[in-house]
Amino acid sequence: GDGELVRSVIKELRGIEGMTIRTTAIVGFPTETEEEFTELCEFIKEAELERFGAFTYSREEHTPAYNFEGQIDEEIKQERYDIIMRTQSYVSEKQAKKALGSVLEVIYEGYDPILEKHKGGDYKNAPEIDGVIFFDTKGKHEIGDFIKVKITDFDEEFYDLIGEEI
Fold first, then answer.
1. Structural Rg of the chain based on CA atoms
2. How far from each other are the two terminal CA atoms of the chain, in whole angstroms?
3. Residues with Cβ < 8 Å from 29, sequence gap 6 or more?
4. Residue 41: which residues within 8 A CB-CB, separation 6 or more?
5. Which of 59, 56, 46, 2 is nearest to 24 (CA)?
6. At CA 15, angle to CA 12 and CA 16, rounded to 5?
7. 77-to-56, 81, 90 alpha-carbon distances in Å
8. How do beta strands 133-136 and 161-165 pair?
């Protein structure tokens, strides 16, 4: 669908409590214009998607796009990737700030000896893709246990949440 349809679906989904919306975008697809890229960045700011990832288009033999005219220069693709991920970082920071003080049910994934914190994720986080919730705990836990964690802070570089078991 077009942008209007996508926006209307997102608006409808926002009415569902606890909804998390995730998507991924390709930047630098052949013939992508500066205007189209700018529109995508504006959409990312407007939609405030909870989880968003991007990657640069790469030519793959035996695909229709391999021979498309209008291939985008690698430097431009990388520049666009950096811009769109910076755009999403503002959204991620805003969401991390909103999480402060909330209590999340976290599935325990283990202990991080470097940070000296326990870690896990909530229902919004895909393991090894999304951020992590680091927390201090009151006792021993087994991998897979569900733990209630109060969010007290967040990492300003990666937007991982930080909290404590309650």
1. 19
2. 44
3. 57, 65, 72
4. 83, 84, 87
5. 56
6. 110
7. 6, 6, 20
8. parallel
For the stretch 44-84, pLDDT in tens is 999 999 999 999 999 999 999 999 999 999 999 999 999 99
Q: Which residues contact 160 (CB under 8 A, 6 or more apart)?
A: 131, 132, 133, 134, 154
pLDDT for residue 156 is more than 90: no
Question: Residue ranges of the alpha helices (H) in the chain?
Answer: 3-13, 34-47, 74-99
- The Cα–Cα gap between 158 and 52 comes to 13
